[in-house]
Design a protein that fits this description.
Number of strands: 12
Helix content: 10-25%
Oligomer: single chain
């Protein structure tokens, strides 16, 4: 399914693709703009629990992450080498809109403080930090990165997300509407 979203003056119209990610076999939301694509793919809470318990987090700490609405986020600079655009983002500029609430994302730096206060094992903290999408990144043509983003919402919650980036020195913003956190369902590995 493809729809067009209302945007700021910096972006006239944007294609937002939704569907089922072939590899993850879970729903995704994707912005496709000239020179850039940004895809959010649901992660099931059960996948997240298992992933972080296997990296040394306690059941309690892995549950905190699993209940926080996790997405795999892929950010790409697809501009041509012959017409290069530099693309930059800062997750602190993204806005989560759930009901009447408006707030930012909890970044690597915020989580670092949380894990220190909770006395999570250092090896688990390191694995967590490297699993997240970097807070800030600059991409040249052909560059891409992926990592988890956590939205601090309950499983099954629907929200809108204002994604902000700078492309060739210009600020861009797209509001993804109707993004949904994965439900907290118990599946067997072969069920997906």
């Amino acid at each position: 399914m493809v729809s067009t979203m209302l945007l700021t003056a910096a972006v006239a119209s944007t294609a937002v693709n939704t569907g089922i990610d072939e590899e993850a076999r879970l729903p995704y939301w994707e912005i496709v703009e000239p020179g850039v694509s940004i895809r959010l793919v649901q992660r099931l809470p059960d996948q997240t629990r298992g992933f972080f318990q296997a990296r040394g987090f306690s059941v309690e700490d892995s549950e905190l992450i699993a209940q926080g609405c996790v997405f795999q986020t892929v950010f790409k600079n697809s501009s041509a080498l012959s017409e290069p655009d530099t693309i930059e983002y800062n997750l602190r500029n993204w806005v989560v809109r759930a009901g009447a609430a408006r707030r930012g994302l909890k970044t690597r730096e915020d989580w670092r403080k949380e894990w220190s206060a909770r006395q999570a094992p250092q090896s688990a903290q390191l694995a967590f930090e490297w699993s997240l999408l970097p807070t800030r990144q600059t991409y040249r043509p052909g560059d891409y990165n992926w990592g988890m983003t956590l939205f601090d919402l309950k499983p099954g919650t629907e929200f809108d997300l204002d994604i902000v980036w700078h492309q060739d020195g210009r600020k861009r913003m797209v509001r993804l509407k109707g993004v949904r956190c994965a439900a907290d369902v118990q599946l067997k590995p072969g069920d997906l």
